[in-house]
């Protein structure tokens, strides 16, 4: 399978040459203006399918709230604010995203989720959240983001830095399939095209390995199969404690 996979991935990569040129010329940045429109629609459907899994994960937020205080939460790659409905009342939310064009949709989500207190929107990548102080938040949330960051270990180091001792990193991420499956084959073959469709998304990442090596004191992680488009069905979900 490895030869065939490499061959067909090369074919797809060749077909993407026009996109490679567009990106090299800096014209791909225009897609970032319209990507929030697509993501908003995708997020609505994703929340319907993954509602129970998300609700179960975010119920654990109460475990990381200091007695007598409100929860302070930072979301990496907040996008359109699809997770807001799952956050507890009174929670103070700091939003970060490298794409400033999400702001319009984020403002709408903020108004629809007035049970939350919004602190600020920081235009920043997960790898560099310098405006956020060390050990300043109770929880960092990261959903469908580690598939597209340029440096997963650095993103996790930044999350670890801004978390207070005993704070938690909550995650839901799609990952690469088992190597023995045809899905693994198609993920690798179609990855060159998927990169552009998903604004830098990679479906071939073994993200759980980075979480295991990130130096958290506790890691609760499980693999699940989501009922989504076949390319992103394999998921991991859980949390890590600093």
UniProtKB/TrEMBL annotation:
InterPro entries: Methyltransf_11, SAM-dependent_MTases_sf, Thiol_S-MT. Residues 74-171 form the Methyltransferase type domain. GO terms for molecular function: S-adenosylmethionine-dependent methyltransferase activity. This is Methyltransferase type 11 domain-containing protein. It comes from Xiphophorus couchianus.
